[in-house]
Hints:
The complex is a heterodimer.
Chain A: E1 5-7, E2 10-14, E3 19-24, E4 31-37, E5 43-50, E6 55-58, E7 61-66, E8 71-76, E9 85-92, E10 104-109
Parallel strand pairs in A: 2-10
Antiparallel strand pairs in A: 1-3, 3-8, 4-5, 4-9, 6-7, 7-8, 9-10
Chain B: E1 4-6, E2 10-13, E3 19-21, E4 23-25, E5 31-38, E6 42-49, E7 56-57, E8 64-70, E9 73-78, E10 87-94, E11 104-105, E12 109-113
Amino acid sequence: SQQGEEDPQALSIQEGENATMNCSYKTSINNLQWYRQNSGRGLVHLILIRSNEREKHSGRLRVTLDTSKKSSSLLITASRAADTASYFCAPMRHTDKLIFGTGTRLQVFP
Amino acid sequence: DVKVTQSSRYLVKRTGEKVFLECVQDMDHENMFWYRQDPGLGLRLIYFSYDVKMKEKGDIPEGYSVSREKKERFSLILESASTNQTSMYLCASSRRGQGQWGYTFGSGTRLTVV
Lengths: 110, 114
């Protein structure tokens, strides 16, 4: 299956703490993407990491990719209440079709 | 600001009605997608299109059809709405590129079938 599986399913932290979410997948990939979804809204593309990259940063986001373990992680540093959302990983093969998992629900308490 | 626009934010329809969900993108993207999202099931792909007049079935196409007569517009059609089609529907678009590009999503349409 091309689907990514996020872990944990839910995560609760205090503002200022770091949040780490993990993603595992089963097939070879071209890249892996992370998305955020605020409650009841569409998904927003956060970051794309290519299969030949090991780490990528974007603001307070750090994504790692380990193709040998078929896993990725998303780290949000110094979290804020506004980071409260669901986060999805989407491993991409050599097609344009994304298959999403059920996501990680992150709750950041003020 | 580039975007994907879904025509309705909330929609209530009766069982048996024919329902049209419209999606328009202004980014000249080749690819367009329809997903539905249900609690505990995540996003599931219904149909996608790589070009005008082209369509491919996703994982759950039963009870749905699509139309793509123009590049910027991708319509999802519920031929005879049923209560089990009550869901959040999300449209997305992307550039063609064998998986090189991210998706842009619309804000979603929450459909209730009564």
